Amino acid sequence: MRYVVAPVSDFPPRSRRIVRVGGREIGIFNVDGAFYAVRNRCPHQGAPLCLGHVRRRLVSETPGEFRLADGAPLIVCPWHAWQYDACTGQAYAPGDPAVRSYRVAVEAGVEVERQPFVAETFAVDVEDDYVVLEA
Prior knowledge:
Blueprint: E1 15-21, E2 24-31, E3 34-39, E4 54-55, E5 58-59, E6 67-68, E7 74-76, E8 83-85, E9 101-102, H1 109-113, E10 123-127, E11 130-134
């Protein structure tokens, strides 16, 4: 299922937005023009993961030397600093559980308008003065 979230102009550089889709909170991040989406729940203890810091990775080939890596940043849990790859949801520490990541894309408005959007509907019956919703 695809969901149109907002115009790109609503996501300035280094911004985030938390949306509710299908009963789940999902954080969407604009990091230097690249968009990432992960579930807003840290698998460690349920913290609101997407409220944490977004950091580039440090990598080192030799002791005492390091550099900032290109590519997907890490999302750092605001409670206990567990770190997750913003693209794949993989935990930075080996053996830690991953967080769910989602594909996110930027599409031209003309293309989005052509999509066959369908509103979710439910059957409703009236039985002895009670309204009953079938979901």
